[in-house]
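[recover] target loaded
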């Protein structure tokens, strides 16, 4: 098991319980999508997995590490084994290729390997012009930006990808392009993927096992007589 969450509880400083007794698992090489309405705790769940915040109760195991008890230096090591795309990432003032090279060199890859990895991931995700695209990431259209952030998250071959709202703000055509990129990535690398979204329809189109988050708990089926997502 790559991710195992048990009896997870999170309450805000104002006393609002967002998550109550959440159980979740992700196996190596598995694609899981957590679907839920706005403010159901989807983004919070990802933040808890990388210890950006801490729960009041529960156990979180990621890659055989107990997140809630991990020392600060070991936490940094674990995060480098993850690929993370937050809901609203800030693009670097670089092209996609330059951003990939910068990250890979920072992680210790050689210049030649960095260039090879950057070219391969751009090709896999079918980003137009690849390494020859001289546009800054902020100048790209919305689906291209999502794919660039995806490329940055996985260029170093993490064991787990965490993707927050991959389809938010996209047209149907744009969402289809991002889903195609995720599918090619999953089929090529077979890394584990945990994504969260309010879009039930796009989650259903993916190859993911669906988990529904509502009423503070994770469920195997959507809420009765209610739309499980916001789109």
């Amino acid at each position: 098991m790559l991710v195992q969450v048990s009896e997870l509880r999170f309450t805000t400083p104002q006393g609002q319980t967002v998550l109550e007794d959440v159980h979740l698992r992700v196996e190596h090489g598995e694609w899981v999508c957590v679907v839920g309405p706005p403010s159901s705790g989807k983004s919070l769940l990802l933040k808890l997995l990388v210890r950006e915040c801490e729960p009041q109760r529960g156990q979180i195991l990621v890659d055989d590490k107990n997140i809630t008890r991990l020392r600060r230096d070991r936490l940094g090591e674990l995060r480098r084994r993850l690929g993370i795309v937050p809901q609203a990432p800030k693009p670097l003032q670089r092209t996609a290729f330059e951003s990939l090279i910068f990250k890979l060199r920072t992680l210790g890859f050689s210049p030649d390997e960095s260039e090879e990895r950057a070219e391969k991931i751009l090709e896999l995700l079918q980003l137009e012009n690849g390494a020859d695209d001289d546009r800054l990431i902020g100048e790209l259209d919305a689906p291209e930006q999502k794919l660039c952030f995806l490329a940055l998250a996985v260029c170093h071959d993490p064991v787990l990808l965490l993707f927050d709202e991959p389809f938010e703000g996209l047209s149907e055509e744009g969402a289809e392009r991002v889903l195609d990129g995720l599918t090619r990535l999953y089929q090529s690398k077979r890394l584990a993927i945990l994504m969260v979204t309010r879009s039930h329809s796009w989650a259903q189109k993916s190859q993911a096992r669906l988990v529904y988050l509502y009423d503070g708990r994770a469920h195997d089926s959507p809420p009765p007589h209610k739309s499980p997502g916001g789109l």
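[recover] notes: The CA atoms of residues 33 and 203 lie 7 Å apart.
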